[in-house]
Amino acid sequence: SQIDLHRTENFGEYVNQKMTCVVTEANRARKNLVLSRRALLEKTLEEERKTRLESIEIGSTVPGKVTRLMEFGAFVDIGGGVEGLVHISKMSWDRIEHPKEVFETGQQIQVKIDKVNPDNGKISLSYRDTIVHPWEGIEDRYPVGAVVKGRVSRIAQFGAFVKLEPGVEGLIHISELAHHRVVTVKNHVKEGDEVEVKV
C-alpha cells in the first residue's frame, strides 16, 4: 500500500528499480524496517496541488478529464492533483436526470472555474457555461409567427410545454391547444408527442 499513490497489482515491475523512500518504522529488536514511497509522492502531489490552486483564476476556462460520475454531478481533474465538481445543474442548458447523459468517465472536456472555496479548497466547475447559450439569437431562429416542430416535454393543468431544442422550451397555454374549450390538457397531447406549433 506504500509503493505508489494507487493500488498496485503487479510488484514485479519494481524489481531492481531505485527509488527514494521515507522510513516510517524502524524496529531493531524485531528487525523490522518499513519504508514508504507513497508518502513522498503524496507530499509532491500536495505541493503541486497548492501551486495549482494558487494559479486558478475564477472565470477562466481550463481543460479537464472526467474522473467520476455521481448522481449529483461529475468530478473533473483539472491538473496538478486538483479535482473540481461540475454539479448536475451546471452540465447542460437542458434539464438532465443523470450526469451520464452528458459525460463518460475518462472524457476530456473544457470547464469554466465557477467558485473556489479558500477554506476547504473545493472547486465548483461549469461545463454549461463553455457552450453557447441556447437563447442567443433566439429571435432569428424562432421569429414571431414562425411554425416549428417540437416535442411535448411536460404537461401541466394550464397547458403543455414543448421542447424545441436543448434549453429552449415554449408553453402552449390550455386556451391555445384547440379552437374549442379544452378541459383536460392530456386529452389533446401527451408527453413525448411531436407537435407543430406557431410562435
The chain-level structural class is: mainly beta
Order of the strands making up the biggest sheet: 3-4-5-7-6
How many separate helices?
2
Order of helices and strands: EEHEEEEEHEEEE
Number of E-state strands: 11
Shape: elongated
Termini separation:
63 Å
Output mean pLDDT.
Answer: 90
Beta-strand level of the residues, as a percent range? 35-45%
For the largest beta-sheet, the strand count, sense and barrel status come to:
5 strands, mixed, barrel
Radius of gyration: 27 Å
pLDDT under 50 segments (min length 5)?
none
Helix content: 10-25%
Question: Any chance you could write out the topology, listing elements then pairs?
Answer:
Blueprint: E1 22-27, E2 32-36, H1 38-55, E3 61-70, E4 73-77, E5 83-87, E6 108-116, E7 123-126, H2 138-141, E8 147-156, E9 159-165, E10 168-173, E11 194-198
Parallel strand pairs: 5-7
Antiparallel strand pairs: 1-2, 3-4, 3-6, 4-5, 6-7, 8-9, 8-11, 9-10
Structure description:
By secondary structure, the chain is mainly beta. Helix content is 11%, strand content 36%. It has helices at 38-55, 138-141, and strands spanning 22-27, 32-36, 61-70, 73-77, 83-87, 108-116, 123-126, 147-156, 159-165, 168-173, 194-198. The radius of gyration is 27 Å and the shape is elongated. The chain starts with 21 loop residues before the first strand and ends with a strand. The model has no long low-confidence stretch (mean pLDDT 90).
